[in-house]
Design goal:
By secondary structure, the chain is an all-beta fold. The protein has one helix at residues 154-157; strands at 17-18, 28-29, 33-36, 39-42, 51-54, 58-61, 64-77, 91-94, 98-100, 107-109, 119-133, 138-142, 145-149. The chain is globular.
Length: 160
Amino acid sequence: MESNAFDLSPGLFPGPTVINTHHPAVGLPLGGVVLTSDGALPIEYLSSGDRVISRDTGYVRLLDLWPVSACAPAVRVHAGVLKRAGHKAPVVLPASYRVRLPGSSELIELAHLVDGQRVTDLGIRPMSLLCPIFDAAAVIYVSGLMLHVPAQTKEQTRLS
């Protein structure tokens, strides 16, 4: 498997910038660990054709990975909160992301889980994200969380 050649230097991120904070940021943070058929890999190492483990449908094939810079509401999910065992680091995600809680089939937006301790509001902040493109919506495992990735196209990630 080959790594994508994204230049991840600050200010040089190759994707469009989403500025409208009412448009949900749909990408995953750099360094987010995604469960795949090849094991747990940072999202920036994935490429078109990789098989990602889905909660509901087994493997889903990654069609593309699209970089986006966003200024959007963000939250920090602290270590061990909402996560499966083995993930010790906090993760910063767009607040609009929906998660599946352990033992539940419901999807809940992260913004609704903010309690100031386990899930904290970081306000609007710039984020470098990678948007996975699948042919259908999927719940995938990212840094120990079960995240809902909506079906989207590259064009939808360019909305501002």
